[in-house]
UniProtKB/TrEMBL annotation:
Residues 189-249 form the N-acetyltransferase ESCO acetyl-transferase domain. The keyword Membrane does not apply. Residues 39-75 form the N-acetyltransferase ESCO zinc-finger domain. It comes from Cyberlindnera jadinii (strain ATCC 18201 / CBS 1600 / BCRC 20928 / JCM 3617 / NBRC 0987 / NRRL Y-1542) (Torula yeast). It is found in: Nucleus. The keyword Acyltransferase applies. This is N-acetyltransferase ECO1. It comes from the Eukaryota. Belongs to the acetyltransferase family. ECO subfamily.
Amino acid sequence: MSNNRVSKNNRVSKNKLRGIAKGPLTPSPSPCNKRQLKQYILSVGSKTRRTCAQCGMSYLVNSPSDVKLHDKFHRICVDGRDWNMRLGEPLESISQNEAIYKVDSSRQYECIGALEMLNIVNKELNAPDDNDFWTSGDSNGSVYVYVRNKVAVGIVSVERFNTSPGHGKKGYWFSVEDGRVVSPQPLDILCGISRIYVCRRYRRHGIAIKLLHAVQRHLIYGLVIPSLKIAWSQPSTSGGQLAMRFNGRMHKSGKVLIPVYT
């Protein structure tokens, strides 16, 4: 009996060993054999914003649309906008290559060109669009453009007021130095300078004053408008200096006043 048990146990042990020997040898997992995780980093170009020292526009240098927009804005702001001198007759010929034109709002090319230039003024002043009074065709205002060598380099938009009692806008004396209205007593005015602009390359050549003189002579047929009947809207620092030269008056306080309207 004992011999049979021993032999039987031996057979079981040998069978177990055979099964173990025949089975695959599976090594314990090693950290080196584990799947390595890879980290992917999405590289996105940094957005570089630049402010042009000449035209003052801020734009993204790595954005093609921004660069294109800046190039157009810069060109008009600094050098002016191309203007076809065959469009209409000039109001005043300054020289062989210079003239002042009145913009015809019914002509698309002239209207678009004027609006592009006035848009620059609005951006510099951080002012809203204020063109309804001359684009509507109701004779409530006019736009004059100073053209030199087929390029519009200066522009003025002027609003004509209703002079009927109780309907016209009123002007007030304004201190440029203090930046405030100094007298509640209203002034009778005929028109107001809404926007005036001269491209940077052509400043200090008297173009703005020539545009104002054109307003005096041509806004109202048969009348040369006295300078004190012309008021100003939102005068900037440079606009205030121009206004003081054009129709400023010395107050008894020693400060120069200009007529403004709201």
